[in-house]
Amino acid sequence: MNDFITLNRARQLAAQYVAKRMFETATVLDGADARLGVGVPGACTREDVWVVYKSENPGDAPGLKSSNIVIVCKRTGRVLYEGSARDEG
Predict the structure, then answer these.
(1) What's the pLDDT score for residue 19?
(2) Which residues have C-beta within 8 Å of that of residue 42, sequence separation ≥ 6?
(3) Rounded Cα–Cα distance for residues 43 and 22 (Å)
(4) 29-40: average pLDDT
(5) Which of 1-10, 55-64, 76-85 has the highest mean predicted lDDT (pLDDT)?
(6) Are 85 and 69 in contact (CB under 8 A)?
(7) For residues 70 and 14, what is the distance between their CA atoms, to the nearest angstrom?
(8) Of 15, 61, 66, 81, which is the most buried if we count CB atoms within 10 A?
(9) 45 within 8 A of 29, measured Cβ to Cβ
(10) What is the tens place of the pLDDT at every residue in 60-89?
(11) What is d(CA 78, CA 71) in angstroms, rounded to the nearest whole number?
């Protein structure tokens, strides 16, 4: 009998751990109120989306940098964008 977890289970556990840390203190703003340097993809307008700001990594060096975001459609829940908000400065 093998007492070890599988490779796939290790991947799942790692993803859950990282996602929890990344989003447990995330800020969520209405797209109309968010400061974005990127457009909202697709047929959605800024009023049609939520902007989720990922939690900062405590190990990151302080400084001026762009926020890391996820844009989610309010109607469908579909993730439309993940990446830089291009809002530095």
Answers:
(1) 92
(2) 73, 80
(3) 28
(4) 92
(5) 76-85
(6) yes
(7) 20
(8) 81
(9) no
(10) 666 678 889 999 999 999 999 999 999 876
(11) 9
